[in-house]
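#structure-requests
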Amino acid sequence: MKGRLIIASNRLPIVLTKEGKDWKVEEGTGGLVTALVPVLKNRGGIWIGWPGTTGDREEIEEVISGATRDSGYRFGIVHLEPQEIDGFYYGFANEILWPLFHDLQTHCNFDPSYWDAYIRVNRKFAAKIAENYQRGDYIWIHDYHLMAVARELRRMGIDSETGFFLHIPFPSLDIFLKLPWRFQILKALLHYDLIGFQTVRDRTNFVQCVKTLFKDITIQGRGRVLKAFTGEREVGLGVFPISIDFHAFARKAISDEVAKRAWYIHEDLPNRHLILGIDRLDYTKGIPHKLQAYKRALLNFPDLRRKVTLIQVVVPSRKRIPRYEELKTQIDRLVGEINGEFTESGWVPVHYIFRRLSTTELLAYYRTSEIALITPLKDGMNLVAKEYCAANVDENGVLILSEFAGAASQLHRWAILVNPYDVEGVAEAIYRAFTMPGEERQRRMKALRRSIREYDIYWWVDSFLRAGIARDLRDFPLMEEYIPQEVKT
């Protein structure tokens, strides 16, 4: 019997909220969910994570079980106490690792109690995995929240093949050295059999940190996967840029529902180029810098006025962290300043949306926007850039992309790359995109879409699994009982 995939991440791929006495279950958002749900669906695997809420455990498990009965895979629920959420999630993960790994060490709060909470929760995740583990399963752990899970599994006697993928950047040596638990984190990571990174740069940073801090570890090889020899195990160090389900996005983008919604958007904003920004509320996304660059473009190039509109979508995130509330206030103020200074009769320069978009809305904006302005200060990959291209079925869009997004390593030849800190440079890129001839737009977008189509989410999974266990997605076949009757042969 071939083993299953066991996926573990901080959150389950669903959002669970209580409205009065009733629970509401929705599909989660973010790169990890977008990437892995299509892979695990209908293969009988297990996704282990925290449901994102506290309360009656039996009730939560019953709600999740009922809502996900037809998902095609099972859920392993890790329940966290409020103090664990504070120390592990809001503390170590989001006040230490997140800012540090995005080169924003001044945002860090190195509270010693956070480390204890981090290890306790990683131990909880390991225990839930051990509870569900069957011999032959492949355990695939995801992201910075769970870097110590493999070490805890080894201590529990689970010596399965175990992979880890880091979805965010790995910092350079001078930044990483500021982490008080630098030795412990690297030692914990080296308990995995394969560690995956988004870009060559991230892996290079990791290798430099290991070589500097551990003189007895040797690293050899070249190409996609290097080998680290720790004395106890051989650890693969690979580069696997994550992607999306290209065909699913393209197919949904040409649906009648999306086409109708896109037509309404153009009716509301006729005769102008739409510039689209979609970002989670986070200081790494560079939203204030983007707004300042857009303002500079309107000042430097007056012929843009009345001819362009920036649609800036901000998805609420991490509401309990004060720095995020401060960021929201700053964004609100900048939008107000731009609209106050430039608005004319019949034209508002910024349309600001602060909420999650439905899938139909999102795809409609992707289809109708002539320019995507994606300018994070630093990002592991940024799947919005790839989603925009996949949904740009008319192939008339222009992608403006931060050179500090992981996606730039794949898309740099056909996107307009910018330094998000360079306000003047981004302003010029906006004008360049606006004035770009149609033939060049099509040539660039065709190439972008071709690259994303070739290196899609399934390529990502297969390349990781082949490096980890010499298997690919076909070795985790669809379960017949989950295939709808009308499509069975």
